[in-house]
């Protein structure tokens, strides 16, 4: 497709899930799957459902699928196939990987996390700290919700072992300067540990270019099935002793993978490639600008006021209405949005929103300008 435009109706025709009346702005919690992903999952279960390593056809096809999934993951993340890891979801992978790293840590070592993080990149470190006597420090954000890199510099010490941070906030859409965070972490002798879950449907990822040591994401956030995907730099992975059964071939995968979901993952990446990142980013920027330009005065936006430095995920409140009430009233109009804190506990506390949180509307490339207008009209009429 053109880098300048997306044929949105042609895109939407590839999704049975988008043929109803509901406007889906709930992508930050999980995007819809194109039919090609659904078909790939079903085809695997019909034709190739077997475990690995057997001499018969279905097993050989499963072996080939796992190999293809690693090649696809490597291309998606910009790493080597052997540096990719599949698991249940980002959070499960992060608990596993953080505990594996924990075998190298000692009481008094320090982990830095940020106020932008989803709790999936905070709680694993808090729990590990409780087990090992580690210290966990929080890097603050500016009032505009950008990451305070000076605060990060001040908090880095010779005891810092990990700097955990998001590529983009799942709550407010703010994008972190990942390269600078990784550079500062490495200058202090620490690992750069990135959560790419929320960024992944909005732009390309290249772990080498970013300079990160570990990166974790979830294919169900970029048009695939419920699955987790991680990268660990090869040299680093070889230095860790993993928790695993002895015969398992992959260092960090503890048992049989969900092969049918790997088939769906491959199809999801092929789908994204068929659209193209340039077209996706151009279209999403236009949707975001339309939303920001038409947001009613009675709505308070939390986060950056333009599309610079953010992805099209927006947290806001409506005067006189609780976030849950707004979400319920929009649902009555067949508009799906989220309310609450979306597991972004720290940023909601930092913004003074507490447990009630805010309303969250997230746009991806299959959304249309007419849908954005429908949301704006509904907010005006609430």
Describe it for me?
By secondary structure, this protein is an alpha/beta fold. It is 40% helix and 15% strand. It is built from 14 helices and 13 strands. The chain has helices at 8-12, 35-47, 57-77, 90-102, 123-132, 149-155, 178-187, 207-210, 234-239, 259-275, 277-294, 323-332, 345-350, 369-381, and strands at residues 23-24, 84-87, 110-114, 135-139, 160-166, 191-195, 214-217, 228-232, 299-302, 313-318, 335-336, 338-340, 358-362. It has a seven-stranded mixed beta sheet with strand order 2-8-7-6-5-3-4, with helices on both faces. Strands 9-10-13-12 form a four-stranded antiparallel beta sheet, covered by helices on one side. It has a two-stranded parallel sheet with strand order 1-11. β6, α8 and β7 (214-217) form a beta-alpha-beta unit. α4 runs parallel beside α5 (123-132). The protein is globular and about 60 Å long. The mean pLDDT is 96.
């Amino acid at each position: 497709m053109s880098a300048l435009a997306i044929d949105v109706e042609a895109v939407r025709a590839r999704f049975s899930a988008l043929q109803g009346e509901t406007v889906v702005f709930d992508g930050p919690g999980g995007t819809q799957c194109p039919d090609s992903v659904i078909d790939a999952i079903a085809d695997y279960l019909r034709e190739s459902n077997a475990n690995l390593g057997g001499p018969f056809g279905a097993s050989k096809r499963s072996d080939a699928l796992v190999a293809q999934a690693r090649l696809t993951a490597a291309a998606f993340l910009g790493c080597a196939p052997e540096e990719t890891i599949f698991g249940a979801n980002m959070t499960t992978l992060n608990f596993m990987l953080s505990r594996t790293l924990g075998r190298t840590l000692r009481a008094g070592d320090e982990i830095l996390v940020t106020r932008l993080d989803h709790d999936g990149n905070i709680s694993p470190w808090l729990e590990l700290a409780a087990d090992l006597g580690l210290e966990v420090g929080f890097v603050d954000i500016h009032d505009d919700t950008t990451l305070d890199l000076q605060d990060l510099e001040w908090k880095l010490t010779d005891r810092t072992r990990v700097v955990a941070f998001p590529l983009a906030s799942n709550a407010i859409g703010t994008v972190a300067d990942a390269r600078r965070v990784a550079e500062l972490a490495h200058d202090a002798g620490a690992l750069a540990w990135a959560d790419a879950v929320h960024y992944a449907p909005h732009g390309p990822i290249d772990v080498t270019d970013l300079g990160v040591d570990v990166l974790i994401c979830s294919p169900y956030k970029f048009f695939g099935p419920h699955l987790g995907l991680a990268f660990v730099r090869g040299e680093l992975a070889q230095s860790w002793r993993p928790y695993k059964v002895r015969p398992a071939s992959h260092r960090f995968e503890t048992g049989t993978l969900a092969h049918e979901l790997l088939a769906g993952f491959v199809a999801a990446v092929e789908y994204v490639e068929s659209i193209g990142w340039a077209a996706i980013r151009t279209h999403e920027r236009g949707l975001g600008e339309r939303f920001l330009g038409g947001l009613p005065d009675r709505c308070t936006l939390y986060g950056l006021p333009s599309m610079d430095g953010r992805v099209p995920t927006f947290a806001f409140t409506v005067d006189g209405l609780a976030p849950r009430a707004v979400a319920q009233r929009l649902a009555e109009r067949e508009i799906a949005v989220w309310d609450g804190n979306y597991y972004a506990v720290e940023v909601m506390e930092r913004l003074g929103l507490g447990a009630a949180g805010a309303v969250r509307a997230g746009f991806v490339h299959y959304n249309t300008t007419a849908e954005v207008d429908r949301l704006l009209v509904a907010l005006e009429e609430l």
